[in-house]
Amino acid sequence: DCEKTSFLKELSKVQSIRGLGSFLKGRLFEESTRKDKRKEIISFKEHGGRIKAAFVRGKCIGIILAGNYYLFPRLRNFNIFPPDFDSVFLGCIYVISEYRGIGVAKRLLVEIEKDLIKDKVKSIESIGKRLNDDMDEEEYENSPLIPFKFLIKNGFCIKKNDPLFPLLRLDLKSIVSDFAESKTLLGKIALKKYIYAYKPIFLEI
């Protein structure tokens, strides 16, 4: 059937024992969480996924998800698949509309970067989204994929180009010295002035 054909087609792209392990883990994760979204989040954490969130007065205003690439099954739908097996994949940064443009997304990224550096992870990869004629601005803004320009601005470089959804990579070794010299200066970046009662609190979920 179609599902079996798809499985064999994807399996044929595996080029190493390590890659085979990641492929099978991804399939197992996808199958075990197919019909239960709550179970999907729990399983995401149990399989090493990282979740950070920003809160204001008890309200979640932003979230970031990262982990092994096989924790993001929809990656297979993109032309750039597969990413590097040894990199952590940054799957999503989402901030609700009224808190965009004040540095929340940047801080969420920095919180993940600091944890990965402590864990001696060498690199992060992510898919960037580019605005195009087939996507209106509202759809673009509300997509959980990360804007291409945001990734470039924060040190990512193109690894596999694509007109709509390129794969980008950040070498964490290149910023380790900055963290050491400035006592994690990136983590202390001030939010732009904005009128609200409380500054966001960044927590691991």
Automatic annotation (TrEMBL):
One of its GO terms (molecular function) is acyltransferase activity, transferring groups other than amino-acyl groups. It holds the Pfam family Acetyltransf_1. Residues 38-124 form the N-acetyltransferase domain. InterPro entries: Acyl_CoA_acyltransferase (IPR016181), GNAT_dom (IPR000182). This is N-acetyltransferase domain-containing protein. It comes from marine sediment metagenome.
